[in-house]
Amino acid sequence: MKKILKGNGLVTLAHQLIAAKLIIANGADESAIIAVINDADNLIGNLVVGSDALDPSVVANDVAQLTAFNQGQTNVPSCEQ
Question: Fewer CB near the last or first residue (10 Å), C or N of the chain?
Fold first, then answer.
């Protein structure tokens, strides 16, 4: 069952995107997630967290994939390890 996001999808997407980029900056292999990162970057574009918004349904797939990456569910150690 897919988790339904509520609220501002921009905030949720930005949160997961920043975490993924930090994990990659710490040495994780980006190959499994780079397409999602690029898509998330394109969705965010010039939007500003706190001022703008994205519909949660638009970002749900990217958020789910980034969350899985960030939690180490895609053969990458989680940031908690």
Answer: N
Please report, as a single letter, which amino acid is at residue 23.
I
Domain assignment of residue 2, yes or no? no
pTM summary value: 0.84
Structural domain harbouring 39: 9-70
Report pLDDT digits (tens) over 34-61: 999 999 999 999 999 999 999 999 999 9
Do the domain assignments include residue 59? Answer: yes
Give 68: exposed, middle or buried? Use CB within 10 Å, 0-12, 13-18, 19+. middle
In a domain, 17, yes or no: yes
Question: Number of structural domains, the chain?
Answer: 1
In three-state secondary structure terms, 81 is: coil
